[in-house]
What we know:
The chain is mainly alpha-helical. It has a single domain (22-50, 60-413), classed as Na+/H+ antiporter like fold (Up-down Bundle). The chain has helices at residues 5-30, 34-48, 60-80, 84-117, 123-136, 141-148, 154-183, 189-194, 197-222, 231-248, 253-266, 272-297, 304-334, 344-352, 358-369, 377-403, 405-408; strands spanning 151-152, 412-413. The chain has a two-stranded antiparallel ribbon. The longest helix is centred in the first third of the chain and has 34 residues, at 84-117. It is globular, with a radius of gyration of 21 Å.
Amino acid sequence: MALDPATKILTDLAIILLLGLIVTLFSKKLKISNILLLMLTGITLGKVIPQTSGSFQFSSDFLVAVAVLTLVMVVFDGSSRFKLKMVNLFSVGAIKVTSLFLLCNLIFISFFTMLLFFQPFTVESVLLSVLFAFVMSGTDPGSVFIMLKSKTNKVIEFLEVEAIINTPIMVIFPFIILDILNNLQTADVARAVVNQALPLLQQIVVGIGAGMVIGIIVLKTMKRFYSQQFSPVALITSALLAYILAENLAGNGVLAVATLGLFFGNIYVKEKENLQEFNTMLNSSLIIIVFILIGLIIEVDFSLGLLVKSLLLFGILILTRLLSLALVFRKQHEQKQEQYRFNTKELLFMACSMPKGIAAAVVAFSLSVFTIAPGLAPMMHTVLQLIVVMMVYSLIFSSVVDRFSKKLIRIKIEEGE
């Protein structure tokens, strides 16, 4: 008996959540990131279940909506746990590391991506390689918070600040590059790039402004009133409103949500701890769905050639990050700034702790449904495969490093762990 479309979608989602719950419990036993096992589960399902079966087939609109909703909740949850004192202490160093790491990636990762995967060189292959370099420049707040949430140390605090700063970059710029690729059909490269300068500035200003407006209106009310039933709903609604308002005004929704989260985390709100716990529970369900789906919808050809080339690219990525950290903190150390005194083991820990999580997943989701010229489809598929594979590598590597963190850095375990 065939199921109607609505029942079929609900059935598939229920199966995904059940599998995700089992995998998450298993990951806790192994003491590794559940995100990694969720992605591997999705990839396995995609290999085992043929597309002709009709199982786990979702519309592109549904996939993007789920991914964006998850991004909104995870970014809000992460940024809301920040205190301005922490941001003020590490933000300058985080901005320097983010900028230098991005520059190194745009030079080295872009070049080696073209060399290994896109020959001969063309304008389109250069832009897609730069797009991939932007995605690889981010570290995901959700992954960092999930893997290190029970530990406190200046190294971990720095990674959290860095993750919040670099995530908007990896979400904004790939889509600007895609706009440039589309404009190449009717304009030269220089004109296409110039045409995106003003929209980029607008995205930043409008995004921050939208977050501030929603924050002032909603959180001012929540300072006075609390309802066990309605306050969590109001908080989720405000995060979505900030994202929607910014996007509809041609701004960046991620910046709007991050701004709102910083407002929430640094002003008095009744029963703030209870509201944060509710958000964490909701995020867990969305993360299960997103990371299993990304393994399902993006087909990865695990050929020997892809694995060898991608591993080489991942090694270069770690070296560029280590170089960026060493250059920034060597200068800070020479200036005798105590908060930036990191030893060699701590620098190695930070270089290896760059998990790609929900933000990279959202970019991959969106790229998979983006309308692009047919001639670019094979190269775009290669980029999508690389993003998924590099996400797996980064999560495996970060999980191993997290497991041995006590030997690399001095950490404190929060009470209640």
